[in-house]
Amino acid sequence: MSDFIVSARKYRPSTFNAVVGQNSITSTLKNAIKSNQLAQSFLFCGPRGVGKTSCARILAKTINCENISENIEACNECVSCKSFNENASFNVHELDAASNNSVDDIRRLVDQVRFAPQIGEYNIYIIDEVHMLSTQAFNAFLKTLEEPPKHAKFILATTEKHKIIPTILSRCQIFDFKRVGVNDISNHLAFVAKSEGITAEQEALHLIAQKSDGSLRDSLSLFDRLISFSEKELSYQSVIEHLNILDYEYYFKVTAALLKNDINLLLLLFNEILDNGFDGHHFIIGLSEHLRDILVAKDESTLQLLDKGEALQQRYLEQSKLCELSFLIPALSLCNECDMQYKQSNNKRLLVELSLMRISSILHQMAEKKSHKSFVVSLNDQKKQVSVEKVTEIDEKIEKATESHKKPEIESNSEIADLTPKSIPRISLSSKKKSKTISITAAFKQMNEKKDVEEEIDISKLRNADFSATRMLETWKEVIAFVKQMGKSNLGITLGVFLPELKDNHVIELPLSNHSQVEMLLEEKYMILEFLRNKLENDYIEITTKVIKGGESNIPYTNKDKFAKMMEQNPHLETLRMKLGLDPDY
Ligand SMILES: [Zn+2]
User: In angstroms, what is the span from residue 187 Cα to ligand 1's centroid?
Assistant: First the structure.
């Protein structure tokens, strides 16, 4: 292995055309050379490993070449080119400001600037990581940059453009290097693999390209590392194993299970992923990326944003046909919610599992909503009755909201909101009666307009398992835990103050102390209902609330009150308190 040269060095581009993924920059530079309008100082900005230094060297070589081709490339044959290619040119001076950032370092460089080159036309000074120069060094350099001799060109390179002072920025022609696209990187890797006699699967190279985050240099180092494991052959499987990447196969499977609302399969898949040593957070981020890719694959115009190999692109296209936007957008938003809450969560596994359940119930809820509506539409006699119920519900909501002098906040994805035109939240207090009438009429209209396009949904598919009041109460505890898990601890506490009661027709009635608690519940009612319906396997469950008179004063706030409340339930506590000599005030 002594003669091993790292690919990043071995395949460093030596002409503008060989630079990968920076076409606009190389063609601008070429045009400037051609029209003899080359600036005196350049600032190359951009992420690491995207070709800044390579471009600087190529520029230096090209403008010193005695025999530039028509295509504005260095000839690679003249004396100057040869010395460049052997790294022996006296025309190029490189300073790495990351390690040489003192005033003395920069003075040494500046001292050389006055001397004209002995061979070739220009001396080129490349200062890498120029943002690392100390302020004094910057100042020492500024004068030279202001009035450089004709034979000197400066190329400053940085990964952190925002750290460059304006006086320097204004004196340079600025080039912003982009991250190299995944396809560009994987094509380049394919070229390197071929040149090295390595058989590499396209998907394997694609994966390396994706992992390199737009840095060609990183991708080549990764490529070298993986080759050292796998003797002239690079398979997708080996890359997955060595890079510890979560296989996209999982995401295709998980998405399919989400679409089918197959919660058991989802839990099993997630368990398998955890067993393989992956982190739940990475999984949820990966799932967001997958769903985003599916979203992008849905439209011809955005298909170009899908950075995947051809075979894989096809699979994304196929899965995207199964996913409606009305599924993808809430699903992405739930993934995002999970991602944000992940770090604070005490039970991370449960958080991810619950998120998966919530995503998988999106389609189910949509179907249910449709069935509610088609139920309304298809059964003529019952139509009015059902509709009136809905409208009364809306009325009550508006009433409550306006009473408490607040805008009714109806959650956009609740079933009521679907029947409610968007004008409702803008009701002014003075005209509430009038607006209310209008909105109801509008709600009716909207329902009737929709009826022609409404699909008939098989109501018999709705779940209708029986459950006892005890079972409901047990599940209620899970609801509270779930709500707290979702970061809504106030609501969690509210839900735990009084016990809910199971009424007829699967209606769960929850006593609450005041209207603001009712509103708090209404905001998340949809989420809670979904949880209950999934847990109890019954799609007919509804939640109603009742405000208990004087309920507010019953809530124990102080320690003393709490103790009194606990005493009601267990009088022996007083004996215990006395034995331990505790003061209930503290
Ligand atoms: Zn030449």
Answer: 28
Instruction: Kindly give the distance from the C-alpha atom of residue 63 to the centroid of ligand 1, in angstroms, as a whole number.
Output: 9
Q: What is the pLDDT along the chain (586 residues), one digit of tens a residue?
A: 446 788 888 899 989 999 999 999 999 999 999 999 899 999 999 998 999 999 999 999 999 999 999 999 999 999 999 999 888 888 999 989 888 888 898 888 888 898 888 888 899 999 999 999 888 888 888 888 888 899 999 999 999 898 888 888 999 999 999 989 989 999 999 999 999 999 999 989 998 998 888 899 999 999 999 988 877 889 988 888 888 777 788 899 999 999 999 999 999 999 989 988 888 998 999 999 999 999 989 887 887 777 776 777 888 999 999 999 899 999 999 999 999 999 999 999 999 999 999 999 888 777 777 766 655 555 444 444 444 444 445 445 544 544 444 444 444 444 443 333 333 333 333 333 333 333 333 443 444 444 444 444 566 677 888 888 888 988 898 888 888 777 777 888 888 888 898 888 888 988 888 888 888 888 778 778 888 888 888 888 888 888 876 554 455 555 666 667 677 777 677 766 666 666 655 4
Distance of CA 154 from the midpoint of ligand 1 (Å):
20
Distance 62 CA to ligand 1 centre (A): 7
C-alpha separations of 37 from 23, 31, 43, 407 in Å: 19, 8, 16, 63
Please give the distance, rounded to the nearest whole angstrom, from the Cα atom of residue 192 to the centre of ligand 1.
25
Which CATH architecture group holds 7-176?
3-Layer(aba) Sandwich (3.40)
- Ligand 1 centroid–CA 91 distance in Å is 13
Q: What is the whole-number distance in angstroms between the Cα of residue 80 and the centre of ligand 1?
A: 6
Place domain 469-554 in its CATH homologous superfamily: DnaA, N-terminal domain (3.30.300.180)
DSSP state of 548: P
User: Which class would CATH give 248-369?
Assistant: mainly alpha
Ligand 1 ion: Cβ-proximal residues, 5 Å cutoff: 65, 67, 74-75, 78, 81
Pairing of strands 501-502, 507-512: antiparallel
b/e string for 395-411 if b means 16 or more Cβ within 10 A? eebbebbbeeeeebebe
Query: Could you tell me the distance, in angstroms and rounded to a whole number, from the CA of residue 52 to the centre of ligand 1?
Result: 21
b/e per residue 424-447 (b: at least 16 CB within 10 A) = beebeeeeeeebbeebbebbeeeb
Work out whether the CA dihedral 480, 486, 489, 491 comes out positive or negative: negative
Domain boundaries, the chain: 7-176, 182-243, 248-369, 383-461, 469-554
- Tokens 């080549």 sit on residue: 220
The CATH number assigned to the domain with range 182-243 reads: 1.10.8.60
| 490 CA → ligand 1 middle, Å | 74
Tell how far the Cα of 189 is from the centroid of ligand 1, in angstroms. Answer: 28
What is the distance between the alpha carbons of residues 35 and 22, in angstroms, rounded to a whole number?
Answer: 20
